[in-house]
Amino acid sequence: MTAWLSFLVVFLCSWSLRDLVVEACTCVPIHPQDAFCNSDIVIRAKVVGKKLMKDGPFGTMRYTVKQMKMYRGFQIMPHVQYIYTEASESLCGVKLEVNKYQYLITGRVYEGKVYTGLCNWYEKWDRLTLSQRKGLNHRYHLGCGCKIRPCYYLPCFATSKNECIWTDMLSNFGHLGYQAKHYACIQRVEGYCSWYRGWAPPDKTIINATDP
């Protein structure tokens, strides 16, 4: 009986610790445009290999990628061969599949290596909306001087001319919302920012936005 109780205590303790670790990765919702503007590297790539590196308590996963296109980061690293992430999802590590999909991957560069995680924007390429793809090509960078302010409960008001109010959190979460899927916050004349949705590249000289 004593041995059984000891086993039960150890089991429950390890189960509780595992629960705490699994819930350790918490990310603040971020609009794709902010994810783009705040990243050192933004690429479209296919994962062609992976290797578990023996560093850190849980190790680091190194993904070998075939870069299809770079959207941001030319001056820092014009060609990306490896993407690094924590091996454990509880530490915000990303799980990418090998030789299956093309991914949009955003990340930061540390000591010459590109790192990404669950709090970065990554997605299977075929799941991106047309507006998000156009944003990557020429819209998001026009709004890197703007501020996208999340609205969690009404009323919400812009406090400066360079703010766009992001209301997806009222009914959705993160990248899944309508504004995140279809709108970019574009900087226009005199620093004025507003939401933009359209098929042609936006004209920065006029204010001609469609409100979400």
TrEMBL record:
Positions bound to Zn(2+): C25
GO biological process: negative regulation of membrane protein ectodomain proteolysis; response to cytokine; response to hormone
Cysteine disulfide partners in this protein: C25-C92, C27-C119, C37-C144, C146-C193, C151-C156, C164-C185
Main location: secreted
Keyword vocabulary terms for this entry: Disulfide bond, Extracellular matrix, Metal-binding, Metalloenzyme inhibitor, Metalloprotease inhibitor, Protease inhibitor, Secreted, Signal, Zinc
Any one cellular-component term (Gene Ontology): extracellular space
Location of the NTR domain: 25-144
GO MF annotation list: metal ion binding; metalloendopeptidase inhibitor activity; protease binding
Domain of life: Eukaryota
Pfam family, one: TIMP
Location(s), subcellular: Secreted, Extracellular space, Extracellular matrix
Signal peptide: 1-16
Family membership: Belongs to the protease inhibitor I35 (TIMP) family.
PANTHER family: METALLOPROTEASE INHIBITOR, METALLOPROTEINASE INHIBITOR 3
UniProt-recorded name of the protein: Metalloproteinase inhibitor 3
Species in which this protein is naturally found: Erythrocercus mccallii
Lineage, highest ranks first: Eukaryota, Metazoa, Chordata, Craniata, Vertebrata
Gene symbol of the encoding locus: Timp3
